[in-house]
Amino acid sequence: MMKISKKTQYGLRAMICIAREYGAKTPITVKSISEKEAIPFDFLEKIVSRLEKASLVKGRKGVQGGYMLSRPPAKISAKNIVSALEENDAPVNCRLCGRKSVCSSKNVWKKIENSLNSTLNSITLQSLLK
Amino acid sequence: MMKISKKTQYGLRAMICIAREYGAKTPITVKSISEKEAIPFDFLEKIVSRLEKASLVKGRKGVQGGYMLSRPPAKISAKNIVSALEENDAPVNCRLCGRKSVCSSKNVWKKIENSLNSTLNSITLQSLLK
DNA sequence: TGAAAACCGACTAATATAGTCGGTTTTTAT
DNA sequence: ATAAAAACCGACTATATTAGTCGGTTTTCA
After folding, report:
1. Model confidence pLDDT, tens digit, residues A61-94
2. What is the mean pLDDT of chain B?
3. Can you give the distance from the CA of residue B15 to the C1' of nucleotide D1 in angstroms?
4. How far apart are CA B3 and CA A116, in angstroms?
5. Structural domain count of chain A
6. Which domain holds residue B111?
7. Minimum distance, in Å, between the CA of residue B59 and any CA atom of chain A
């Protein structure tokens, strides 16, 4: 249940790759990540570009270009990554339920959302490098 | 992200309806649940039949038939309900990853799964009736 | 100046979800 | 007995989401 999309799985793995190079002079290319991680290049490009829009990585164009973290790995959480890649970040959007008052179940989904967020917030990229 | 399916949302609401009648002599019909909760009848029938296969409810055919809980609401958890309705109950199935050893991210998804399960296990139907 | 990279948007394919339909079986009230 | 009301069942369709592709433009560096 509640499948994590490939997009998000790939995105996290890509972030870990990029994080490994934190501090290096030259950025890492999408091509190299896609080879290392066996992720389709074109798809990965799109994913990384969303991570950039969320200011988690910075891109540099041209030869010797690529991507690097925009801040230290300790300052990037799994929640940051997941939020960057998924649009509706709540498991259940209660506005869509239509029967707000009747929906006795909404507390369940709210609890799940909270526990999910607190788990994701507690994990940093830093902690994943070890 | 990680959307809860309508199937599961409907299923939980149906279980709450059925639980409200716990102790009554006559069971509650799918028709009546579908009207109360504004859930498509045919779809709901399928959902409830899965809840029955998971032994969460018992059906009685014929006139005056319907469904009732198969055990007290305190003995049924949100996890029981969700598991009955979703096939792959883990957010990420690591066997599908294909690069087990390389998958540095699997601990993240495992943590999510654990926190999710412990949240769902901690919620009983009983607690939702109040 | 040419190659290598990011960057961009539109498209397609595959899969999963949501919902429908037409029936059969069982039970009960009349 | 029988008719109605319900569960029960499997196959089907429609819609939405996810995953992946493609063709191009722009920027940078050697």
Report:
1. 999 999 999 999 999 999 999 999 997 656 665 5
2. 89
3. 38
4. 12
5. 1
6. 6-128
7. 23
